[in-house]
Amino acid sequence: YVDKRELVTLMTLGANPELLVLGYLRNQRLVRDVADIESITVDWEVGAAAVKTRHGIKDIEEKTAHRVVTTGCGQGSMFGGLMDEVDQIALPADAAITQSQLYGLVNTIRLKETTYKSAGSVHACALFSTVSGDADMLLFVEDVGRHNAIDTIAGWMWVNKAPTLATTHPASSGLVFYTTGRLTSEMVIKSAQMGVPVVVSRSGITQMGHQVAQLVGLCAIGRATHKRFLCYTHAERLHLEPGLVALPSALSASFAG
Fold first, then answer.
1. Roughly what angle, to the nearest 10 degrees, separates helices 185-193 and 207-216?
2. What values do phi and psi take at 152, rounded to 5?
């Protein structure tokens, strides 16, 4: 609920409800600044989160009139118009990831104890920083759907004042997003909105996700397991290192080109 108005029902494991709510509002572009939120109250007895804003959400009826059921696990829900401001996203031109950082990121995920390993049926997302030279994990989130996981990370970035707009925060060039799920257009747009220029997935990419990644200048890397990967878009952001073992294929070469 936002200002006593029912907004959406989300299926979640419930580990970080406040962060999920914040990130959802941010990624749906319903709230532009975390300071616009006065409070979030979670009632576990009824399974509801009540958000109180400081000044209300302008044109909320119009903004939420068109709802789209996405392909996300648990039937993710988003509001129409997510593509409207894509052409305004500007990711830092010099942002990149090295091959060794990519391998380190994948290995960190592989070694982590997760709900997926013990029970399955969840998706995971993580935020990494490469500022130190290594791929350092800042946050790891598991939920029933990848959209909830990335929204929770967006909420965490807001609360911790992490850079979310690449045009005003050059430090965001050191951020890398990881997901176990497909790189759909929604996932790519949300990552770009968060100021993350490199996205890595254990899975593949959809046609529309590929198109959006090309448009916004985002490096999309998929099928990343062990030391195998495919770079789908903006391969100039991926710095290969000749000394490392690589397993090239005709498919990866064609995408990299």
1. 20
2. -65, -40
